[in-house]
Amino acid sequence: MHIEIAAAPVPEFIAGPAARPMLIDGAWTDAQSGETFETTNPATGTALASVASGGAPDVDRAVAAARRAFEDGAWTDLNPHERTMVLLRIADAIDAHAEELATLESLDGGIPITVTRGMVADAAKTFRYYAGWPTKMTGTVNPVDASVHCYTVREPVGVCAGIIPWNGPITMAAWKIAPALACGNTVILKPAEQTPLTALRLAEIITQTGLPRGVLNVVTGFGHTAGAAIAAHPGVDKVSFTGSTATGKAILQASQGNLKRVTLELGGKSPHIIMPDADIPAAARAAAAGFAMLTGQVCVAGTRILVHEAVHDEFAEELAKALAQFQVGDPFAEDTLLGPVVSAAQFERVKSYLAIGRSEGADVAIGGGEYDGPGYFVQPTVFTGVDNSMRLAREEIFGPVAALITFRDVDEAVRIANDTDYGLAAAVATSNVSTAHSLARRLRAGVVWVNTYSELDLTFPFGGFKQSGIGRELGENSLDNFTELKSVFIRL
Ligand code: ADP
């Protein structure tokens, strides 16, 4: 199979021959080593732009800048109303540059333009949501002995680093930057080496909104260089990480030197339970989107579809029909729903799991075909005859590959669903209200969807049980992540 890729637009930001520098202390700067690396367009496999390859000395500079900016108080002690206004200006600036940011995101990550437009709009929404908080973060006055006055205040944590992955880079950048700034922190963002462009352009846009110098820094580079230096740095007070469970564990370990505050949003192998009383065509559509959207490169992807044996065949047929509607193609075509996976490495990884599934004895029921290059396109694929002990059912693939597993009764469904190291998301398709509530209670996951999949809202906590992470992001929860709570006792 072959996919035609039309000439894509080239934003001015990457039109020049020079490598894109990093943002440190309000200045655009090369890596101290002078090194750069290339980022690739996964739809064509060709180089897109080169960016500075930051390392430990650059992280040192960024930390020093963020510390100075934190301590001089220009941001932290700014009147909360003023902080709100800056965050609102950032949101407006994102909207004003929406098409350019969406274009950069689609070029760099291969995500369809119709999807990245929504992501950019959501990034603006994230800044707007957190813009509301600076004036509303109150403390308490506590009922203690009459001879003392006791109250609590929320204070910023200090220098906060965000280390983010390549799936939904602008979404992740907004989730890390907006609440950290709202709480009065200074920030160092390290985008993934596969997709550094929108973080850099976003930072450029943000610097034009009146944020004081050094409050936001962006260090581009690799995980084992820039990322590891951030995680181990004694001058970083907090790391907020989104990415793989293996890297999350490395970051947690590296951050122990100064007991950084660490929040981790990690992987998943989320179950989607299809009960026999479900609206089967609707459940199949939700399940298809649940595992295949963003070409399966979603931490909450519903990659274990647990289907009651009585409706297995009907469901599989409906699932095939739903997936047939998913147009794989050029990220810049308006009717494309699924673009390529992000990189050559990810392409090989996904293909290796197709081979693993076959070698484990599972059957390819839907998809499984290959596209010829040069882009990294994968056909959404569903395996049947899968046992939950197979690697196909246990390991996060991060591609559009799902395992269909049958169950006989609800207890067996719950047992299989919870039999995983992960606990990020789970879903149930049923028309029975009490089954819905009962399963919502029994499933060990940070979010449970009923008769829907992937729905999130900025006001809700997001994060995982078990090895899917530590802590919750979004909503009021991010305020806990980005503030320290202080108790003050005054003897009267
Ligand atoms: P993937 O393996 O799919 O690239 P990762 O979880 O490793 O996903 O990457 C997510 C982010 O973590 C990226 O920004 C990456 O550079 C960074 N990273 C990778 N390894 C480390 C590490 N040891 N320490 C800190 N950051 C890292």
From TrEMBL:
Positions annotated as active site in the UniProt record: E265
Keyword Cell membrane tagged: no
Keywords: Oxidoreductase
Record domain Aldehyde dehydrogenase: where: 28-488
Protein family according to the UniProt entry: Belongs to the aldehyde dehydrogenase family.
Name of this chain's protein: Aldehyde dehydrogenase family protein
Species assigned in the record: Streptomyces aureus
